[in-house]
Amino acid sequence: MANHQLLGVLLLLLGLTTFCLAAPPTPCSTPACKSAAAYIADAMNATANPCTDFFAFACGGWQSRHHIPDWKSRTGTFDALNDQMTAQIDALLEAFNVSGHGHSHVKSSGSVAYGAYLYQRCNALGIDQEDAVALADLKDVVKEVIGVWPIGQGQRAEKDKSWAENIVKAFVAGISAVFQFSIQPDPKNVTVNKVVLDPAAQGLGDKELQNLTANAKEITAYKAYIRSAAKLFCGANCPTLEEDIDDIIHLESALASSKLSVEDQRDPETLYNLLTFKQLADRSKFDFLAHILIPAVKALGYTPTAQPTDQLIVSDVNFTIKAVSIISSLKSPDRTLANYIINAAYEPEQNSITIPAGILKAPFFDAARPFAINHGSIGVVIGHEFTHGLDDQGRQYDEVGNLKNWWTPAAIKAFSERSKCFVEEYGRQVEKITGLHIINAAYEPEQNSITIPAGILKAPFFDAARPFATNHGSIGVVIGHEFTHGLDDQKRQYDEVGNLKNWWTPAAIKAFSERSKCFVEEYGRQVEKSTGLHLNGQNTLGKNIADNGGTHESFNAYKARETASGASPTLADLPKFTSDQLFFLSYANVSDPFD
Question: What is the model's pTM?
Answer without folding.
Answer: 0.67
